[in-house]
Amino acid sequence: MYDDVSMTAPAHDAPESISDVLADLGELPAWEVAPLTDDDLVLGLVGPAVASDLMLLESIDPASLTTHRAKLAYVKAVDRAGAFATSLRHRAEVALVGECAGTEFLPEVHKAHELSVARRTSRHAASKEITVARRLATVFPGFAEALNAGAVSEAHCATLVSRTRHVDDPEVLARIEAQVLPSARRLPVARFADEVAAAVSALDEDAPARVRRARATRGVHARQLEDGMGQLTVTHEWSTIRALAAANDDDARALQLDRGGAEAVGAGSTDASLDACRADMVAARMLGTARDDGSVVWDRNNVQVVVNVVMDLDTLRGEADRVALVDEQPVPAEIAREVAEAATWWRRLVTDPVEGHLLDYGRATYLPARLRTFVRARDGGCRTPMCTTRASRRLQMDHAIEFPDGASDSGNCGGLCPIDHQLKTHGYADITESRSDGSCTWTTLWGQVVHVPPRRVLPLDPDPPPRR
Questions:
Q1: Cα-to-chain-centroid distance, residue 465
Q2: CA-CA distances (angstroms) from residue 1 to 6, 16, 44, 205?
Q3: Which residue numbers in the chain have pLDDT < 70?
Q4: 85-135 residue pLDDT tens
Q5: Which of 13, 80, 222, 461 is the most buried (most CB within 10 A)?
Q6: How much is the pTM?
Q7: Read out DSSP for 286-332?
């Protein structure tokens, strides 16, 4: 009998497949055949995945399995079946969009747009998925076969395609696949990525030039996180990043000592943690003032930081505690009031008291371009379904019904990212209904219809005030 937690078993005791088990049983007299248990069935699911595996797994309750070995085998069988299903999806996607990318830009964007609507993903994610499906079908047949058999995961295939995206020589690509396929069958994705990188460096003659071109991609990127936080990312040569991190660590450790050191951390001070000190010292170096002795002083009050707070008047006064928004992120009323107390300028926003849709965008210190400002505040980004563009600087004003046939008003206008604007202009998608609350209905060239509801500027209140 196997140990409950054993990961191995004698070779002669482990069946090769369900068919082998049934064949062995068929050689015995009927009265000597013991009924198969769920453990037996699951342990028999080895080798390449087939469609019937999922039916068998669905019929078995994992809680009924009696050994850890059988439960792990169940998990592994589900992974193989999932990879098999992904392989089928890739085949369908290639049938939909074709094996090779076209030479024209907008038709290719349109295909990614249709897939993103169908799968409820971003267009960027759909485009990456199309690339993986095409590369497996045309460049990496060994990985396509391994994925269909459940021997490698979708993540391994996506990593291979991503790490070889700059390699064009078919012979080099074939050699890379042959070299790394065995690693994909046994290594986790992160370590497999290292194997692919090593193979590309060794086999691709263009690798040195590509490294030099990569230096031109240096940059700094900011993105919003949850709970009022954000993230600043610096991309640079690794030697420079390593030096920046070391210098920041020195600054942070000095700041941590000023804040009480390890004793303060042990006492529960979140400001004295090393990570918090690292973040504060980056801000101090960029926004603070350097003294003659090299020390840095960071006075938050001397730095103009724009924070957008949206809340109803009752919550601002402290007469209610409804959810508010700080930089478009839902926050508790108490936090929003703390942020609002430090505000220097205010702008009036009027929302529907029940639904929370934006009705008016008031002026603050200057008169904005009313329609453009209202529409961008109302929509909160590109109004195309599945588009994730939020930055207002990247949006273009669009008329659902082209001007001058359509009016320049809130019912006919909205913000679109440049690519979606082109898709609409060239007939790959169209707005068949547009309302002043920001809701609209899109119809794609291939007949998919998606209704976009109005965006709630304030989160829905479970206990809304009565209409006046």
A1: 36
A2: 10, 18, 17, 55
A3: 1-34, 292-307, 327-328, 341-370, 457-468
A4: 999 999 999 999 999 998 899 999 999 999 999 999 999 999 999 999 999
A5: 80
A6: 0.65
A7: HHSEE-TTS-EE--GGGS-----EE--HHHHHTS----EEETTEEE-
Residue 242, classified by CB atoms within 10 Å of its CB into exposed (0-12), middle (13-18) or buried (19+), is exposed
Tell which residue, 416, 427, 358, has the closest CA to residue 387: 416
Contacts for 254 with CB less than 8 Å, ≥ 6 apart: none
Residues 406 and 140: beta-carbon distance below 8 Å: no
Q: What is the DSSP string of 1-28?
A: ---TT-S---GGGS-S-HHHHHHHHHTS
416-432 pLDDT, tens digit per residue, is: 998 999 999 999 999 98
Residue 124 CA to residue 203 CA, distance in Å, equals 29
DSSP 438-465: S-EEEEETTS-EEEEPPPPSSPPPSSPP
At 230 the three-state DSSP class reads strand
- Please give the pLDDT value at position 344: 54
**Separation of alpha carbons 168 and 302, rounded Å:** 53
Q: Are 390 and 379 spatial neighbours (Cβ–Cβ below 8 Å)?
A: no
| 62 Cβ contact partners less than 8 Å away, ≥ 6 residues apart | 71, 74
CA 443 to chain centre: 25
Radius of gyration of the chain (CA): 29
pLDDT of residue 430: 92
Pick from 328, 445, 433: nearest CA to 383:
433
Predicted local distance difference test score (pLDDT) of residue 283: 85
Query: Which DSSP string corresponds to 390-439?
Result: --GGG-EEEESSPTTTS-SSTTTEEEE-HHHHHHHHTTSEEEEEE-TTS-
Contact 436, 411 (CB under 8 A): yes
- Which residues have a Cβ under 8 Å from the Cβ of 61 and sit 6 or more positions away? 38
The DSSP result for 344-382, as a single string, is S----EEE-TTT--EEEE--SSS---HHHHHHHHHH-S-
Q: From CA 20, how far away is CA 270, in angstroms rounded?
A: 60
Q: Alpha-carbon distance 466 to 433, whole Å?
A: 30
What lies within 8 Å, CB to CB, of 318 at 6+ separation is: 337
DSSP SS3 for 242: helix
Q: How many Cα atoms are found within 13 Å in the side-chain-facing hemisphere of 146? A: 21
Judged by DSSP in three states, 121 sits in coil
Structure tokens at 113: 């747009």
**E strands, 65-110, in order:** none
Residue type, 272: A
